[in-house]
């Protein structure tokens, strides 16, 4: 008997162009060539030679309480208490009742997009910023509208463009504090203007603080979490263990809901139903969260030190090679934006570096940067490798 396969039908929201870009082909070929690869993109902290205390990290997973299934849609109270403690350590008072646990910041975004937006509604996102947002928005039928950051001895929000981007369909403004990849903090003046805009237009403010604990230099006064202070607008602060405890594999994150009481309570009641629909958190990880959060200073210190050392290398090499390497001002986070004037040409700079020198960097266009010769490097790779690779890049 002959069977005819029916043609499968898929959603348009998943009809992404998954063909290989010429940059991805260049990276694949560099890796397959057998020649040495100089990788400046490694940003997985579990692969960067940091010293993780296996006993301290794994023993809290062995907790007999995990044998009982007793789900709480907002997340286990012991884990939420630990998150509230984390904020207390940042001089912010966040109630355990205002927290929703998720398995990742990405999941937090998805919950919030679902909470705030109908299909076709808009969220304003800084440009340059983290590329994952595009896929999250597609999956949740949300339209992202960029608002520009401009560079002038540091990065700044272009407020006139931001206001111009607000339409009747706008539901939220998204801020990454400090931003990835630019590594700049949202200043207190900018925060006030963002909050005023949100209040005036009835928008929510979503603040991603996954890199909050990674200042690359000390500032006075030190930048503060958006969880601190008063919240005139409905505000959601996001973070999670993948960056603040260097544990992306443990899959634990959260949303802190802040703002005027009535709106906040309504948001939390709805988010609780979203979370209850999935109940995606598992018991062992939640029971281990208090211990991991209490112990995260050690790994944070190692990552900060590495990032600062690599940034110092960049600045030294830039000083020694005038006109060949430009390090854009960076205040915090795990990455740096570089200008490579010698790499401007027909072919994209990151692709050329991969093909001609076996050096892997992220192209600026990944993050929405149009300027030729602009690339992004991770600052958390092994220091010796980093120094060799950056020399090779400017060669
Ligand atoms: C700004 C930003 N937010 C969120 C994430 C992802 O965090 P998670 O692993 O909790 O989904 C990343 C990952 O690099 C990021 O850069």
Description of the molecule:
By secondary structure, the chain is of the alpha/beta class. It has two domains: 123 residues, Aspartate Aminotransferase, domain 1, CATH 3.90.1150.10; 231 residues, Type I PLP-dependent aspartate aminotransferase-like (Major domain) (Aspartate Aminotransferase, domain 2, 3-Layer(aba) Sandwich). An eight-stranded mixed beta sheet has the order 2-9-8-7-6-3-4-5, with helices on both faces. A four-stranded antiparallel beta sheet has the order 10-11-14-13, with helices on one face. The longest helix has 25 residues. The chain starts with 21 loop residues before the first helix and ends with a helix. 42% of the residues are buried. The model has no long low-confidence stretch (mean pLDDT 96).
Descriptive key words:
about 400 residues, alpha/beta, Aspartate Aminotransferase, domain 1, Aspartate Aminotransferase, domain 2, 2 domains, 8-stranded mixed β-sheet, 4-stranded antiparallel β-sheet, binds pyridoxal-5'-phosphate
CATH C-level of the largest domain:
Alpha Beta
Q: Work out the number of β strands.
A: 14
Question: In order across it, which strands form the biggest sheet?
Answer: 2-9-8-7-6-3-4-5
- Integer-rounded radius of gyration: 22 Å
CATH H-level homologous superfamily name of the largest domain: Type I PLP-dependent aspartate aminotransferase-like (Major domain)
Q: What small molecules are bound in this structure? A: pyridoxal-5'-phosphate
What characteristic shape results from the CA principal axes? Answer: globular
The quaternary organization reads as single chain
DSSP strand content:
15-25%
**What is the share of helical residues?**
25-40%
Just name the CATH architecture of the largest domain.
3-Layer(aba) Sandwich
CATH topology of the largest domain: Aspartate Aminotransferase, domain 2
Largest sheet: 8 strands, mixed
Give the terminus-to-terminus CA distance: 65 Å
Unreliable runs, pLDDT <50, ≥5 residues?
none
Mean pLDDT over the residues: 96
Output the number of helix runs: 13
Number of domains: 2
Question: What's the order of the H and E elements?
Answer: HEHHEHEHEEHEHEEHEHHHEEHEEEH
Estimated structural class? alpha/beta
């Amino acid at each position: 008997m002959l069977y005819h396969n029916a043609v499968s039908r898929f959603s348009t929201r998943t009809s992404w162009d998954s063909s290989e870009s010429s940059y991805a082909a260049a990276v694949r070929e560099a890796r397959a060539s057998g020649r040495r690869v100089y990788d400046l993109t490694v940003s997985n902290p579990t692969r960067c030679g940091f010293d993780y205390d296996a006993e301290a990290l794994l023993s809290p997973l062995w907790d007999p309480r995990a044998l009982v299934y007793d789900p709480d849609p907002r997340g286990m109270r012991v884990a939420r208490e630990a998150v509230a403690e984390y904020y207390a350590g940042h001089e912010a008072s966040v109630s355990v009742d205002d927290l929703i646990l998720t398995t990742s910041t990405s999941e937090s975004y998805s919950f919030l997009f679902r909470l705030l937006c109908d299909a076709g509604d808009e969220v304003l996102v800084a440009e340059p910023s983290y590329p994952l947002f595009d896929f999250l928005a597609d999956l949740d039928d949300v339209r992202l509208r960029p608002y520009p950051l401009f560079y002038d001895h540091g990065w700044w929000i272009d407020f006139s463009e931001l206001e111009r981007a607000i339409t009747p369909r706008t539901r939220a403004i998204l801020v990454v504090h400090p931003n990835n990849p630019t590594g700049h903090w949202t200043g207190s003046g900018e925060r006030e203007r963002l909050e005023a805009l949100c209040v005036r237009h009835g928008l929510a403010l979503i603040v991603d603080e996954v890199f909050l604990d990674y200042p690359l230099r000390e500032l006075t006064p030190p930048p503060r979490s958006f969880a601190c202070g008063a919240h005139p607008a409905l505000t959601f602060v996001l973070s999670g263990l993948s960056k603040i405890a260097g544990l992306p594999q443990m899959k634990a994150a959260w949303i802190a809901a802040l703002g005027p009481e009535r709106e906040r309570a309504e948001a939390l009641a709805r988010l609780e139903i979203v979370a209850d629909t999935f109940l995606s958190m598992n018991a062992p990880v939640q029971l281990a969260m208090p211990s991991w959060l209490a112990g995260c200073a050690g790994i944070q210190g190692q990552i900060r030190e590495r990032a600062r050392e690599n940034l110092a290398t960049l600045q030294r090499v830039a000083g020694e090679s005038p006109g060949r390497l430009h390090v854009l001002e960076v205040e915090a986070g795990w990455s740096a934006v570089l200008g490579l004037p010698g790499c401007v040409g027909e072919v994209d700079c990151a692709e050329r570096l991969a093909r001609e020198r076996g050096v892997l960097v992220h192209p600026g266009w990944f993050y929405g940067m149009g300027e030729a010769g602009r690339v992004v490097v991770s600052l958390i790779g092994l220091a010796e490798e980093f120094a060799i690779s950056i020399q090779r890049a400017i060669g």
